[in-house]
Design a protein that fits this description.
2 copies of one chain form a homodimer.
Chain A lengths: L15 H21 L5 H8 L3 H7 L3 H26 L2 H17 L2 H7 L8 H23 L9 H12 L9 H13 L12
Chain A binds a DNA duplex (30 and 30 nucleotides) through helix 1, helix 2 and helix 3.
DNA sequence: TTATATACGGAACGTCGTTCCGTTTAGCAA
DNA sequence: TTGCTAAACGGAACGACGTTCCGTATATAA
């Protein structure tokens, strides 16, 4: 998705331990950002990753670098799952499963919202990255589900993304509580099963 | 405006040096907030005020306490000036002078905007304080100017406040530059002098 | 003037971001 | 396997900062 990460082309350009550590750093940062926000101490992230702070700063010179890398990595993981789900479930089910997965993605991003709106120009590209990856991913699932008659047509992928985003981002609501109930309502509302008709036709 | 500050009623309740220091602290914080934002180091503020950090923390235990106190103090100073100007100038002139004064107030508050929108509940009362003080102050000047025919009628004080606020708060614009030019246009637009007619009638 | 509550100042402590460099090690070649 | 070298590591060290604490100074009342 990005350029090469120094693995496939030619001889080993990046040492294996370096890549392992980068991975551990991103994993640790993801967990700690979710738990304590994006301002969590650098030492804490390095410790959880099992590396020294020097390694953290060498790989991610600024806090924004790390935040952006974590964000993109999770976006990529979430969109990749759309493909997996689509190939292992009926379209309607795949769509529902992925929307729940997306809900978890949003719920884990609470700490990020503040950084996004902080005015730091380093984060300007993130909303675009968000949309350019999620919109096609959802569109694929949605189209497939519409094709087999599992959900109604006429839903704009981006509007659905925003709707769930707004539901899941409600401050103070815990991920497993009311939020997911609301999202389930939304998912149910998409369905076009026997015995259900669009509200307008009632 | 607040409760008593321990001066007028009964015997001296607060030591004179304490009040002097509080004043110096607020004055120093005002200058440093304007220059470096509301996250400026506590030591720097204390040093400029000529007191120790202990004194700063005794008087303003949290950063929000200091920010709020500075904000209210400046609001009070700006509204008080409305009265002074009204009693020393013709109504139309008093209005123009005060609007320029208000523009300077807003321009000095750039650092505050971020704190205001930080979600800290300590700042929730500030927008109300802003409006409840500025709106009557401007309304008085405006009414007087309308009465003598210096400016057109039908202007809502709060909308004018917001208009200037939006002009003066444009990021990157220096207080003495384009911003004041735009505000002057606005002030001119208010005037109802011979030879000018409202745009709609042209 | 003296007593005392009040307020002051700044050293001290812990946390954090960031840098720097001596040490370790992955990858390659012989 | 062994040695070599460049890459990468790790964590001590430094400075800035928030915050606390208490010995000292002083404003005020008697």
């Amino acid at each position: 998705m990005d350029g090469d990460h120094g693995q496939e082309a030619g001889g080993p350009r990046v040492r294996a331990d370096a890549r392992r550590n980068e991975d551990a750093l991103l994993e640790a940062a993801k967990a700690i950002f979710a738990a304590s926000g994006v301002d969590a101490p650098a030492r804490e992230i390095a410790a959880r990753a099992g590396v020294g702070v020097g390694t953290l700063y060498r790989r991610f010179p600024s806090r924004a670098d790390l935040v952006i890398a974590v964000f993109k990595r999770e976006v990529d993981a979430c969109t990749a799952e759309a493909v997996v789900l689509a190939s292992g479930h009926p379209p309607g089910e795949a769509l529902a499963l992925w929307l729940r997965r997306f809900t978890r993605f949003i719920a884990a991003k609470r700490g990020l919202a503040q950084a996004l709106h902080s005015g730091d120009p380093a984060f300007q590209a993130l909303p675009d990255y968000f949309r350019q990856n999620f919109e096609p991913a959802l569109a694929g699932l949605l189209d497939a589900a519409v094709d087999v008659g599992a959900v109604r047509s006429g839903i704009e992928p981006y509007e659905l993304l925003r709707a769930i985003g707004n539901l899941a981002a409600i401050k103070g609501a815990e991920p497993e509580g009311e939020t997911s109930v609301m999202v389930e309502l939304l998912i149910d509302g998409l369905r076009l099963s026997a015995g259900k008709v669009p509200p307008a036709a009632g």
